[in-house]
From TrEMBL:
Keywords: NADP, Oxidoreductase, Pantothenate biosynthesis. It is an enzyme of class 1 (oxidoreductase). Pathway: Cofactor biosynthesis; (R)-pantothenate biosynthesis; (R)-pantoate from 3-methyl-2-oxobutanoate: step 2/2. Catalyzes the NADPH-dependent reduction of ketopantoate into pantoic acid. This is 2-dehydropantoate 2-reductase. The keyword Translocase does not apply. It comes from Actinomadura syzygii. Residues 197-315 form the Ketopantoate reductase C-terminal domain. GO terms for molecular function: 2-dehydropantoate 2-reductase activity.
Amino acid sequence: MTFCVFGLGAVGGLIAARLARSGVPVAGVARGATLAAIRERGGLVLAEGPDGEPSAPIPLTATDDPAGLGPQDVVVVAVKTTALLSAAPAIARVIGPDTVIVPAMNGLPWWFFHGLGHDIRLEATDPDGTLSRSLPADQVVGAVLHLAASCPEPGVVRHPAGERVILGDPAGGSARAEPVAAALRRAGFEVETADRIQRAVWYKLWGNMTLNPLSVITGATMDRILDDPLARGFATACMREAAEVGARIGLPIDTDPEDRHAVSRGLGAVRTSMLQDAEAGRPVELDALVAAVTELGRAVGVPTPSVDALLGLARLNARVRGLYPDE
């Protein structure tokens, strides 16, 4: 089984390095400083654990031209959602009729409604249908990752904690996910399969759709946001609205927001991925994480005034900083 990983940043780099180390043929698609660093070192460098030492470079094929790779058995899409639309034509070059597409990304994905029984396409996630045409939903195996990873420098991945990966076929069932799950297990991940992967996607989104943008607005780590009663209460209000949206599409959430806050608070002084992007001057993933929820709320008739306010404030903040396009 051949794997191609698009995007060798924190998550994509971790997956590619682990797979290559386990003996799986892996090709990675990267560009710029990341590609140059991998080529110079002869592979990806991986530091595991809170205080793990960097590994020797883990060899793998790295290129910025996927056209020469040909169709792959599995394509892991690990680019930021802000870059996906422009990357889609290149990704399509390595997709054949039997290729399994595994998006390892944040937020609400373009394939989310495939198999859910709702004829909905969100402007926030697939504005003109390009993703649905280039990356067919019936070839997707959805993925939800619960792990921490970062890139302290190009071509170096730090993985302090977390191994959990959930895979599933958007149309229902897990049989199509099993070969991918087996490969990831051999690579060291703790993989489970889900009969309804959208539940796992929605639950993760419900948990991080507030802290990510609030961290960008405030510059605060998660512990400080949740220790502030007003900020915590605002996050709770947003989560209650999102839970009602989920219930309307058959994805109810039984967890109380305060219980979810306790889990997040237990992680300590975490700088969210969106805060890290903002501080590095990279575009922020507001559309997939927040705008998609407000748009879906309108589609199913659920008012979302708190989420709307969160989106408005975070979007304006990002626009002032040049991290989100003006209208």
